Amino acid sequence: MTFNFVNGISNVVIKAYSKTILRFEFCRFCYRNQSALRDFCSLSTRCRENHSLIRCTSYLLLTMRNRTKSINNSDKPLYYDKEHFANYNLKISLKTDREKIISEYNNYLCGLSTTNNFSEINWEDLKEKTLALDRCMMVNKKNVETIIMKNILSLGSLHFGRSYLLYLKNQNQNVNIVTSSVYLRLCYNYWSQHNVDDVDIIKSICDEIMSKLPLLDSKVAESLILGLCLIDRWKDSFGVIESLKEYYKVSSLSYSAVIKAAFSNRDFQIGWQLLEENMLLGISPEEFVYDSWLDTYEDKNVAINRLLCFFSKYDEKLSTTFAEKLLMNVKKIQHSSSNFEPSLTVVTYKGKCTNCKNNLRTEVLSVSEFNRLRTSFLDPVIIGKNIFLKSTPTELNRFQEFLRRTAPYDFVLDGLNIAYAVGVNNTNSTDVFANMLKSVVRYFVVKKKKVLVLGRKHMKMWPKEPMKYIENNANLFLTDNESEDDPYLLYATLYSGKNTNFVSRDLMRSHKYLLKMHERELNSLFLRWQYQHQYYLIYVLKNGDVIMKPPVKYLQSAHVIKGSDGNDIWHLPCKSEKNANVPGHKKFTMKKWLCLQF
């Protein structure tokens, strides 16, 4: 859950943590915002997107009491310390100088990359300039070659990287295995720039790295697989992967490189077999795998149809870039007499496609699907090994006993999430928070709904009148201030039954990954259930009226429907654009969909 309060205090918190803030400014902030900081302390563990802020906040809260106490007890006037001014300005100056140095180095590297014939002087000069970055990039004589190769990788010049690697070999240097592995990655990313020399170099590097199996760093092993997939030894990657599985999880990029190599070498059966196996293990491929399949398989009708069925089966979402490529391929093979115009489009909140004007399919979880999801979620996620990260056994037992006495419910409310919907930047008044929550509870109570409100114990300090209304008209359960209450929200909703809904502005992204990742279908079931049962609070008017967004009822995965003419029309969702400023309830209507008749 992300709270607006994070944005409001982030600069002050980070400065305080790095000790660059003025003493007066820091103390004044703490003194004036003690109430808000206490609330933020209880919320900070939920800010998963910004772990640094959690650490910063811990530092701030530990020092707040002593610093504010010293201000209150001091008769001396508050003032700005000149020494702190000097230190702060010095750090700003150093940061500016660092950025300037790196910018000049990058410009020098870009200029050098355009050289056709490199001399020894060029390489010595590059090494000297890179070593000069020791304070900016942690460069030393032991890792300078690797740093240079990584910078060349960022630049994307295979000619530059090849010339540098050959220079190191001509110097009779024993080239670092990490440097060589970075070169393999450079070759894979920019293979369109390769020449015949690169193939021999790759074979030599792969032989060297394979001699050290299985004692390899995960990144080096990944580079080895990428290198093997560029030459005629791509099947050797299977043995490499098997030898590495015992030590760490093999990356999606490694598997994707092997699948792409299989498609490129027209071994389609192996490619699809590996792709299906990975999906069952919860390993989604890199999108260039789909590109390779479309580019390689000659019968485009068969190629596209197999991709569509694959996306539907495994609930895969497309990037906008690949959706445009797929759209282009469909248009090429579309019959000229067809009146249907395939397009990237949007779908209304009620599920109507703005391109074909048809309603997308609605599909409610069956009783057996819901029971499977509830069993899979409740036991491993809450009661399993992660229990001590989210709560305590005592609190969990208390919650389970509470549910046995009071469930089922019609609606489960995320109390703090609703209360803070007003934005803690706009106010730190607990009176406002409490009345926000009261209004939402009343919204459901007048509809004769049975409501459970989940919150934290610090809410006992909120104004009595609205809290009394909540206690009298809804069931209220308060967890410890340190507990994460989102799992309790999902637990209570699933425990109450198939018809129970919940209210939260949180998209619950992290919790679906707590399901068994090797059972990809469970993640799909969780998302379908979430879309059909999550209400979003938009806002509460000054008169207390509540504007609520109901759940999305149509399928959010690739599926086919029958058009008015009886032909199959596919709708495939694209990946949502990453925009932290877009509220959760708007992400559905802003999502792009690929609509095509096939």
**Radius of gyration, CA atoms, in whole angstroms:** 29 Å
**CATH second-level architecture of the largest domain:** Alpha Horseshoe
The N- to C-terminal Cα distance equals: 40 Å
Average pLDDT metric: 79
Q: What is the β-strand count?
A: 10
Largest beta sheet: strand ordering:
4-3-2-5-6-7
Main sheet record: 6 strands, mixed
CATH class of the largest domain: Mainly Alpha
Q: What is the structural class?
A: alpha/beta
Low-confidence stretches: 1-28, 39-56, 61-86, 579-585
Instruction: Quote the beta fraction.
Output: 5-15%
How many H/I helical runs?
A: 28
Helix percent band: 55-70%
Shape: globular
Describe the model.
This protein is an alpha/beta fold and 598 residues long. The chain folds into three domains: 4-80, no CATH class; 138-334, Serine Threonine Protein Phosphatase 5, Tetratricopeptide repeat, CATH 1.25.40; 367-547, Rossmann fold (3-Layer(aba) Sandwich). 57% of the residues lie in helices and 8% in strands. It contains 28 helices and ten strands. Strand 3 (451-456), helix 24 and strand 4 form a beta-alpha-beta unit. Helix 6 (120-131) packs across helix 8 (144-155), helix 10 crosses helix 12 (218-228) and helix 19 (367-383) packs across helix 27. The longest helix is centred in the N-terminal third of the chain and has 32 residues, at 82-113. It starts with a helix and ends with a strand.
